[in-house]
Every structure is written in C-alpha cells, then in structure tokens.
Q: What sequence folds into this?
C-alpha cells in the first residue's frame, strides 16, 4: 500500500514539475555543436550573393542546391590577423590587426581571393579599429596612436587612399538609405554627405539616447539601435521616429531585417542576464509603425524553448539573413536561414534550430 502511495506522490511531483520553466529549459536543451568558425567572429557582410566573416582567418559562405549543403569555407586572406570585413562594388576589404598596428587591404579577385592590395593611410589617425561599407562608400574608424582622438576615414577610389572627414567621434556603423549616408555614432544618428565637401548633421531626436550601437538599411527602410533600447526608424515615405523598445536589456548593435512571406521584422541583438541574450523581434508594419517587440517564439524560430536554450544564452555582435530568402531547411520549416556572430562562442546558424554552425 505504501509503495502505491509513493508512486502516486512521484507522479504528482512529475506533473507539476513539467510546468516549471527550468524543467522546460532542460527538456529543450540542444547538444552544442563545435563551431566551424570559433572565437569572436566579426560582423557578417554580403556581396549580394555570398557572405563573408573573419575571426583571424577569412571565411566565405556560398548558397548551394540545398540549404544543408551550403557551408562556410576558408578563403585566402591578406597577411596578419583579420578581424573585420566590408564589401562595396566588387571590392572585398579586410582589416588586419597586430599588437601595435592595423592595416586595411582589398582584393577585386572574388574567385581566388589573391592579389590583396594595401590601402595607404597617410592621415594622422594611424590605428584603424573597424571598417564599414555603405553601398558605394567604404569608411573606417581610426584613432591617433596613444590617444583618444578619433576620425572617420573614407576610402577614395581615385587615389586609393584613406582621407580624413573631420568627424571626430566613435562610430559603430554606416548605411546608405534614400540617397543619404547615415552614421550610428556615440552620441546620435547622423546624416552625412561626403562629396564634394564633407557635411555631417545629427538627427535631433537621436541626441542623448545613449550610444548608438548598430545600423542597417535596405531599399525601403532604415533602422538604428542604441545601447539603452532606443530604435531609430525611417522609410521611403519619411515616417521617421525614435522609440524606446527595451528598458530592461542592452542592445548589442547586432541588427538586420528579417523578411518572409510579406512580413518584415528587425532582429535586434540584446544582452541581459545569462539566460536573457540572443535577440528580439521588432515588427515593422505595412504602415511604417514599429509594432510588437517580442522574444522569438514562432516568427523567426519554430520553437521558443529551443531558442531560449541555444542562441538565447549568448550575446551576439552580428546577425544576418542571407540574400534570396534561402530557407533554413530543405523541407519542414519555411523560415529563412539566419547566421549570427556570438561575442565569444563562434558563428551560429538557424537551420530549423539555433546551434553553432558546424563544419
């Protein structure tokens, strides 16, 4: 009789424990894969078909006949430790970093990736920290050696050199939208014109909204995100706005547009507690409103619990949906393929479930 009572009590405990979120997390645990691209990968960039990323080495992803067959592979790199990449108009740029120096180089050989050409930097800002591309402009953030003085240097396609702009602020991204260049900077979002003379003006509503961490644009819209949860938005109908969407987590600067079957979302990287990382989905409605801002549940992922126990535990520095609306899986999941650079745990992918991108 006592044995039956014990079994009954165990069943009751089991039933109630199933409703415990920790139990759900354990149930949803996915065995971590060994990342093909380990460490702290750079931002992910596209040439319109292929993707590139760096982690000391230089990597390329190409679409294949099936999503499962599309993999990343090494490509030839310039000398040094390649930490950042950018692409504009047939030019792949790579930033190589040493102990006390950094150099920018490019190649136009997008087949063999040979013949890398060094870009001279004769400015007074010797140390290049990051490189960005916006349609037809390649710009770098550079500082003076042993100082906190910064400038944006722009690659001049005629002289093949870097030229100073006089914009002495830290930046975290640049994008071209509606014929204008937008810069995500330490103290606001700026609109810039680099030719014939440099003019850079802040968008007033973005001032004093903390540090602007990332920016992205397509033909229809632009989004920038700040450290303390603000989102700047504009579109071709000039429905400009600045709204705070998160007052609990920090935005990491990872941001991309996610499009599928007529729906558009901005995926925004966040950093909170150890189980509050990954990204959030921000709906962009057809009338240009910033709609629901939610943890991934059924839009970009198939299962919320598996998201929470995988990429949801890692802070990400970059996220991107490859061009062409390539599906995550050959069948069974109509959601697009996604890639994300984690800050410390390698390159990740959504291929029906989030996990480190395998070899």
A:
């Amino acid at each position: 009789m006592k044995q039956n009572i014990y079994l009954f009590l165990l069943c009751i405990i089991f039933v109630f424990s199933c409703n415990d979120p920790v139990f759900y997390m354990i149930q949803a645990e996915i065995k971590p894969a060994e990342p093909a691209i380990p460490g702290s990968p750079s931002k992910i960039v596209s040439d319109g078909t292929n993707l590139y990323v760096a982690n000391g080495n230089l990597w390329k992803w190409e679409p294949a006949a099936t999503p499962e067959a599309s993999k990343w592979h090494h490509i030839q790199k310039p000398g040094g430790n390649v930490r950042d990449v950018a692409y504009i108009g047939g030019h792949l740029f790579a930033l190589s970093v040493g102990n006390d120096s950094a150099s920018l180089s490019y190649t136009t050989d997008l087949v063999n990736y040979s013949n890398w050409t060094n870009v001279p930097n004769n400015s007074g800002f010797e140390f290049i920290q990051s490189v960005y591309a916006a349609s037809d402009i390649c710009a770098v953030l550079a500082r003076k050696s042993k100082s906190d003085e910064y400038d944006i240097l722009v690659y001049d396609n005629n002289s093949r050199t870097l030229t100073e702009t006089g914009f002495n602020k830290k930046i975290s991204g640049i994008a071209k939208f509606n014929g204008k260049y937008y810069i995500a900077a330490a103290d606001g979002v700026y609109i810039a014109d680099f030719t014939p003379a440099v003019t850079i003006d802040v968008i007033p509503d973005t001032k004093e909204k903390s540090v602007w961490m990332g920016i992205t644009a397509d033909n229809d819209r632009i989004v920038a995100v700040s450290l303390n949860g603000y989102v700047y938005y504009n579109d071709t109908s000039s429905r400009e706005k600045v709204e705070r969407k998160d007052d609990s987590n920090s935005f990491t600067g990872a941001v991309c547009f996610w499009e599928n079957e007529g729906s558009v979302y901005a995926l925004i990287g966040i950093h909170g507690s150890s189980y509050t990382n990954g990204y959030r989905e921000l709906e962009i409605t057809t009338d240009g409103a910033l709609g629901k801002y939610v943890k991934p549940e059924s839009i970009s992922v198939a299962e919320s619990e598996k998201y929470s126990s995988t990429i949801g535990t890692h802070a990400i520095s970059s996220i991107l949906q490859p061009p062409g609306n390539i599906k995550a899986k050959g069948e069974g999941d109509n959601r697009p393929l996604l890639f994300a650079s984690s800050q410390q745990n390698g390159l990740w992918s959504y291929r029906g479930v989030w996990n480190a991108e395998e070899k």
Remarks:
- The chain is about 10% helix and 45% strand.
